[in-house]
Amino acid sequence: MDLEQGDRVSKIKTESGHKSIWYRLMSSLFVHSNEERAAFKMMWKMTGRERQFKQTMLPSFGYILIMIIAPNIGRHGNFGDFTSGYNYLLVLYAFVMISFALCTSLLIGNNQTSTWVFKSMPLKSPASFFKSAINAAFARYFIPFYLLMGTGVCVLWGIKVLPDVIIAFLAIYLITLLLYYYQQPGFPFSLEKTAVQGGANAIKVFGLMALAALVGFLHFALLKWVDYASLMLIPVYGAAIYYVNRIMVYRKITWMEVDRVNSYS
User: Fold this and answer.
1) Where would you tag: which of 62, 76, 168, 195 has the fewest CB atoms within 10 A of its CB?
2) What's the mean pLDDT in 211-218?
3) Where are the domains positioned within the chain?
4) pTM check: above 0.90
């Protein structure tokens, strides 16, 4: 009996160790200040515990296979036909659906009366908290699944498409940031679903969907133009991500905007 208990304890510690390694790796990539570190750790734990968040967001992973990839495989004569040409771009940019689900799911919850906890955090700017919120959710849920699917794409289409996997990742991350920062700045898990799915937010979502389609078409057009011409997108997206995460977010998300949207009673 003691041996069985010891094995269970050892297994729990091993799993916890793996999680902490992934957490430390992601925090080293996404955290750039002490304020962000505290908020990132808090949101990492909350996104792992909030049942309504996972119920809203996780089905989007299945939608990619059911609604986008599977019908296109069926449209081709066989799987071999699908894994030829540039069909892998469709697989990669289908992940934009997860971005939309991730951003909206972070707002929906039953913590309307607990937003004072976020307000009481000693932050000079609320932007640090919102940055950490989307980065923690993105790192915990999106990146592992994308790594898995990106590896599958490289196996099926060849290692030559690895640069395209990286480019699509940068593009989707940029779109995720823009979508989240241009939503109404509600604190995580504190808004009703009807408020999140209002007309103004719907217009923004459709606008960013059009942007995602444009980005995917640009990637395809560069590949058709000259081999590896799409590599020029890496510094462009890198600079855009830097600007959005280091400059734009602090101009967009202010205490005035946050207080306008959130209720602390």
Assistant:
1) 62
2) 86
3) 31-261
4) no
